[in-house]
Amino acid sequence: MEIWHNPRCSKSRAAKAALDEAGVEYTERRYLDEPPTAEEFDRTLTAIGAEPWDVARLTEPVAKELDLKNLPHDRAEWIKVMVANPVLIQRPIIVTDSTAVVARDPQSVSKALDGS
């Protein structure tokens, strides 16, 4: 299990604390420092059941600079932009062997734990 974590984000800290409380082993990936590759992000999106625009942080300044909300919905192009600017990726994301979830609430963390 891996958590894509931003320690400055309260939702990310809460998800990490829930994993700690559950006593599961996981790897913490500070994805702003170690962004996913395009292939990793594509696999993770498939596991989530989402498109990149579904997990994009459109309020980030870089999203506005790139006019991301008006970028045509081309999965490969969005993935390329988001891995080049990982701050655009919603957080936290918990990746297990069988699933991945954007874990912004306790129910999503539970889903990830059930899928581990």
From TrEMBL:
Superkingdom field? Bacteria
Q: Which InterPro entries match?
A: Arsenate_reductase, Arsenate_reductase-like, Thioredoxin-like_sf
Output the Gene3D superfamilies linked to this UniProt entry: Glutaredoxin
- Alphabetical keyword list: Oxidoreductase
Family the UniProt entry places it in = Belongs to the ArsC family.
User: What name does this protein carry?
Assistant: Arsenate reductase family protein
> Where is the organism placed in the taxonomic lineage, from the top?
Bacteria, Bacillati, Actinomycetota, Actinomycetes, Streptosporangiales
